[in-house]
């Protein structure tokens, strides 16, 4: 299994990588910290799963220029240009309130053909780990 994580927070990315390595020790895990690098890797990598944050910079060289709704933009672009070779997406975001969570769930519904679900990442909690693993396992079982 090949997994791509598109996440600009080094701490959050490391946390997700550790979770995945513990559950899928044979998986190839790659990372990207911006929209441009994530899409470029996504096109060339034939990933099974792509875990993407919703608020990302466009480019690595400008990490403080964050843009919301990047998850849907990445899904849209990769789905249209890569077709069947694009993996299944999981939005993993540290959203602040339920309104943001509801917005992400609407994105997931609009992109339900490629998006497995939305996970709320919370530092110091483990329930996000269980949700990511459950979404991946369901995708493998139904794949």
Characterise this structure:
Helix content is 47%, strand content 21%. It starts with a strand and ends with a helix. It has a five-stranded parallel β-sheet, sandwiched between helices. The model has no long low-confidence stretch (mean pLDDT 90). The chain has helices spanning 10-23, 35-45, 70-82, 98-110, 127-142; strands at residues 2-6, 28-32, 49-52, 56-57, 66-67, 88-93, 115-120. It is globular and about 35 Å long. Strand 1, helix 1 and strand 2 (28-32) form a beta-alpha-beta unit.
Q: What's the arrangement of secondary structure elements?
A:
Elements: E1 2-6, H1 10-23, E2 28-32, H2 35-45, E3 49-52, E4 56-57, E5 66-67, H3 70-82, E6 88-93, H4 98-110, E7 115-120, H5 127-142
Parallel strand pairs: 1-2, 1-3, 3-6, 6-7
Antiparallel strand pairs: 4-5
Helix pairs in contact: 2-3
Number of strands: 7
**Strand order within the widest sheet?**
2-1-3-6-7
Q: How much is the average pLDDT?
A: 90
β-sheet strand percentage:
15-25%
The biggest beta sheet is recorded as: 5 strands, parallel
Structural class: alpha/beta
Order of helices and strands: EHEHEEEHEHEH
Instruction: Compute the separation of the termini in Å.
Output: 12 Å
Question: How would you describe the shape?
Answer: globular
Low-confidence stretches: none
Rg measurement, Å:
14 Å
How many helices? The count is 5
Describe this structure in a few short sentences.
The chain has 143 residues and is an alpha/beta fold. The protein has helices at 10-23, 35-45, 70-82, 98-110, 127-142, and strands at 2-6, 28-32, 49-52, 56-57, 66-67, 88-93, 115-120.
């Amino acid at each position: 299994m090949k997994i791509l994580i598109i996440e600009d927070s080094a701490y959050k990315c490391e946390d997700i990588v550790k979770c995945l390595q513990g559950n899928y020790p044979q998986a190839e895990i790659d990372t990207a910290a911006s929209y441009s690098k994530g899409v470029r890797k996504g096109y060339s990598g034939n990933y099974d799963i792509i875990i993407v944050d919703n608020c990302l910079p466009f480019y690595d060289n400008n990490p403080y220029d964050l843009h919301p709704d990047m998850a849907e933009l990445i899904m849209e672009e990769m789905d249209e240009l890569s077709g069947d070779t694009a993996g299944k997406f999981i939005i993993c975001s540290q959203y602040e309130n339920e309104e943001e969570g509801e917005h992400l769930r609407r994105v997931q519904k609009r992109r339900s053909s490629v998006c497995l679900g939305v996970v709320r990442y919370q530092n110091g909690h483990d329930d996000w780990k269980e949700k990511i693993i459950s979404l991946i396992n369901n995708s493998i079982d139904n794949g």
